[in-house]
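Just curious. Protein, please.
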Amino acid sequence: MSDLLPFFRAWVTDPRKVSAISPSSPALARLITSEVTETSSPILELGPGTGVFTRALLDRGLREDDLTLIEAGPYFSSLLADRYPKARILQMDAARLGRENLFGRGELSSAISGLPLLSMSPRQIMGILGGTFGYLREEGAFYQFTYGPRCPVPSAILARLDLRATRIGTTVRNMPPSSVYKIERQNRGCDRQTA
């Protein structure tokens, strides 16, 4: 309940950027972070909003100073700075990740994304994924949730970036119900149904 008011305030200010009707649930946060362990660091979180996924990452044993949070909204950025003072918080557009020199190549273990990819252009999605995978280790993964019936990254973009998407689960304990996809380099093994 404590996240509803800040979330609603941000949504009223810029509904296109928030693109959700309520904060993500703890059930979705557990699902999207389910493959993360305390040795999975450092981690990049994109579009953390009120920090529901951030809290789940900390609950999984990660240290706050191993997290970099990329948040475009000034209201959410300020809220996150208050809640997670040891995390690295950058107020910027995630589509510009590849143009910035935020990390070394292969420095990051994984990325957790709360970004509304379904409301973004192919160019923005390319910028987000291309930039993120430039920083991820070879075995690194990008975790993305969606309210839609399939992976929110178009298959043409996955093919162009030589990536594959695998649905790792769905939760109805979110409003609306959501699925989580693991996106990784094509050469990685996969034993679940691909998108």
